[in-house]
Amino acid sequence: MLAPTVIIVMLITFTLGYYGPIDPVRAVLGEEWEDETRYAEVKKALGLDRPFMIQFLDYMGTMFGGNWGQSLAAFGGTASDRAVSEGRGAGYSGTSTSVREMVLGRLVISAQLSLWALVFLTVFAILLGVLAAVKQNTTIDYAIVTSSIVASSIPAYVIGPVLLIIFVLKIPVFKTVGGWDGMFSRQAILPAIVLATGPMLVIVRQTRAGIVEVLGKDFVRTARAKGLPERLVVARHMLRTAMIPVLTSMGLVTSGLLTGSLFVEQIFNIPGIGKLAIQTLMSGDHPVFMGVVLFQALIIVTVNLLTDLLYGGLDPRVTYD
Amino acid sequence: MGTYGSSQPEIPLTDGTEPDQIPLLQIRELHTQFETKQGTVRAVDGLSLDLYEGEVLGLVGESGCGKTMTALSIMRLLPGNGQAVAGEINFEGKNLLQCSAEEMKQIRGGRIAMIFQEPMTALTPTMTIGRQISEAMEIHLRLSRQEARERALELLEHVGIPSPRERFDNYIHQFSGGMRQRVMIAIAFSCQPRLLLADEPTTALDVTVQAQILDLIKELAQESGMTALFITHDMGIVAGSCDRVAVMYAGRMVENGPVDDVLLNPRHPYTQGLLGSVPSLESEPGDRLYSISGLPPDLVSLPPGCKFWPRCPLADDRCREEEPVLEQYGESRAACWKVMPLRES
Q: Is the CB of B187 less than 8 angstroms away from the CB of A315?
């Protein structure tokens, strides 16, 4: 499943890149692009004068070869300087123009941010979902569901600045506004919370629905008939069964967090993969942008696979042949 | 508790009859109701029942007559908005209907255990069967996890599950119906409760397995001198396993007494009908099986008078207007204006 998916994704991204509006030659030459001889020279140097299929096979070779090509910065030029300086950004040390190192360096930062967001989600969203289900159709239930709707409907580019105004300007809990200083720095807290608010509603709702569904089951009655405290009835007998649909959403959410932290990284000036995508798109650093897109596709495929494997951990009836 | 005992008629202590002692479980005028859009469903309607130490009482009746709801009222585990709105359930000096949630947790599993009908759905699919057995002992007997595990292994062996050590960490989908019910029985007996409520424990099983499971429950109950309430619609189980029998219809008791007496000399036409529906060895091939005509009454709008009259072949005007109460007839009691004449023996 994995290999054909990856090849199809590569073909699609490559085709879009080939016919897309970004002209790598222009990006390298900057102002000089109107000079036809220079244009042809650079085009040949980049190998862009070859037919589509040859270019695609060459691209696949580079990708599977493991170095993923070079940033346009390697070819010099004005626009490429911009690509290098912005493409790396804060938190990324090294002067490499290798696409692999640029993408992986950024991905580590995005992954840390997403991990925090996931921790917030698993702790708060699942807890709130369970609470809402157990207190079904009471004020507590309504309050939890309503506030998650509110939290999830406000876009990150609104919540982000609002939180910045409150916690940096009004009540100075955090001194610095943006940037990245490692996973365990205070700067990581606000962006992770903002990132977690988006999928909050989905997880709260799924958890609530999952628990409500098992509430009336015979095995829950058996657990109560043993005289277990309600806390143990929920934790031992209901949660695992109820978590199966939640895990599905969690998988989708994780892919979304890793690939969709665009706004949050932009607002908080975090040099993650989302920011790299925006920068390279703007600067026309075609090889790096292609690397980002391909890598995000890979993430989605991998997370899906991991989710499938985790089902077996939750539900003993799932076996893998 | 003793208030009713004095007004009770004196009955000699014989096998199968009500012993002259304070009952272990005493249900008085229990009313259990559900509020629905159609109206109030009277699932249990003024039921009184005594269960004496060491006896096995069979509670019989058609589906929907309130047997299961009686047991769930005792456990205080009624589904949805079901509620025991009136009456008393006295057990070990406490009225269970007035116990706090904390007290009920001590009683459930610890003092009163229940075996459920559906072994397919009544056990948690995502937890090993070993843990499902041992967890109650950690709470009620205050055993450590390791001690509870050892006890659970003994119990598994005792209820007839081969190689318990390997089976301990299995999940319920790896067990057959009969094996699941054995696990259920192990859970019920794990904390040595005084009272066992068995709600149709064999209905969902194959006939051959039914007998094994019944024997197992009887054997374990006798070993520990446990009192048991057997809920069933199977007269064969009543005849084979119970000391006394109580027949329920439309949420109330219509007849009760020693098993031999009730089965041989049923006083109530409904009991007669139930017994008539059991195929007998004397019947010829091609004989039609007797069935009680009509359906059980709608529990939202019960008929006036005797609740059985619309289906009763003997009903007259008095039955339609006046509700009969339980009266003593020989060793048994029945609530009927047209009590069957005793069969000559």
A: no
